[in-house]
Amino acid sequence: DQQVKQNSPSLSVQEGRISILNCDYTNSMFDYFLWYKKYPAEGPTFLISISSIKDKNEDGRFTVFLNKSAKHLSLHIVPSQPGDSAVYFCAASARNDFGNEKLTFGTGTRLTIIP
Amino acid sequence: NAGVTQTPKFQVLKTGQSMTLQCAQDMNHEYMSWYRQDPGMGLRLIHYSVGAGITDQGEVPNGYNVSRSTTEDFPLRLLSAAPSQTSVYFCASRSPRRYNSPLHFGNGTRLTVT
Predict the structure, then answer these.
(1) Minimum-distance CB partner of B103 among A4, A46, A108
(2) How high is the mean pLDDT of chain A?
(3) Average pLDDT by consecutive 10-residue portion of chain B (114 residues)?
(4) What is the pLDDT of residues A23-35, one digit of tens each?
(5) B82 touching A (Cβ < 8 Å)
(6) Where are the alpha helices (DSSP H) in chain A?
(7) Contacts of B92 (CB under 8 A, 6+ apart)
(8) Which of A8, A95, A107, A109 to mutate to test the interface with B (most CBs of B within 10 A)?
(9) How far apart are the C-alpha atoms of B33 and B50, rounded to whole Å?
(10) Beta-sheet strands, E only, within chain B
(11) Does residue A68 register a pLDDT over 70?
């Protein structure tokens, strides 16, 4: 049962254009969402996050949008740069029965920026 | 600035062999965890620890053991390796003092079980 889904395994975008990566979730208990970026042969690195009490969070070229009613979030990168080529993981957090945060990851989207 | 260090980077095992994947962090993080990454499956939590002496199971704990004797180290043990454990393993840590503080990942161990 995949609670966090990234339905696009790959995405190609022209340099300078906007990249939009999508993520859907099913668990209404998720209250915090994060995006991680992963280059080959490296571990994922944190990119941007959003709390469920907000619908938008912006950090430079990166903006995350959250639509709670649709259980959908998206990551916008504008303008896209060649260094943005990587795999992007969406993750969602909820408290477990012991009060610890449990993070659930999506399957990832490979973004390729075409020069 | 070592962060999270994983060793080895690569390992090949035969079915039934045992081994320990090492993970160390120098950020004094209380929370540490192990994930495995498989094609089409994303990152799945194996085990985690919220502090020295405390461990708990994640989503896919079968076939793996962990212990946490110090804040810095969180080794992952495979007692009897199986081909289904062929994967890339990531160790991650964070400080739980700030709710939902991001995870810091190591660079992974690529394990092949033949």
Answers:
(1) A46
(2) 94
(3) 92 97 95 93 92 92 96 96 97 81 94 97
(4) 999 999 999 999 9
(5) no
(6) none
(7) A43, B4, B32, B33, B34, B35, B103, B104, B105, B106
(8) A107
(9) 9
(10) 4-7, 10-13, 19-25, 31-38, 42-51, 54-57, 64-66, 76-78, 87-94, 104-105, 109-113
(11) yes
Residue A6 is inside which H or E element, if any? none
Q: What is the DSSP string of A41-69?
A: TS--EEEEEEETT-SEEEETTEEEEEETT
Task: Report the amino acid identity of residue A67.
Answer: N
Contacts of B45 (CB under 8 A, 6+ apart): A102, A103, B33, B34, B35, B58, B59, B60
Amino acid A43 reads G
In chain A, DSSP finds a helix count (H) and a strand count (E) of: 0, 11
For residue B33, give Cα distances in angstroms to A9, A55, A74: 25, 29, 26
Contacts of A64 (CB under 8 A, 6+ apart): A33, A35, A48, A49, A50, A56, A57, A58, A73, A74, A75, A76
Two structure tokens written together for A20: 């939009």
The shortest C-alpha distance from A65 to chain B (Å) reads 18
For the beta carbon of residue B39, count every other beta carbon within 10 angstroms: 10
Tokens 């004797």: give the residue.
Answer: B69
Q: How far is CA A4 from CA A24, A27, A50, A67, B80, in A?
A: 6, 8, 15, 14, 31
Q: Is the backbone peptide bond immediately before B8 cis, with ω within 30 degrees of 0?
A: yes
What's the rounded Cα separation, in Å, for the pair A80 and A40? 19
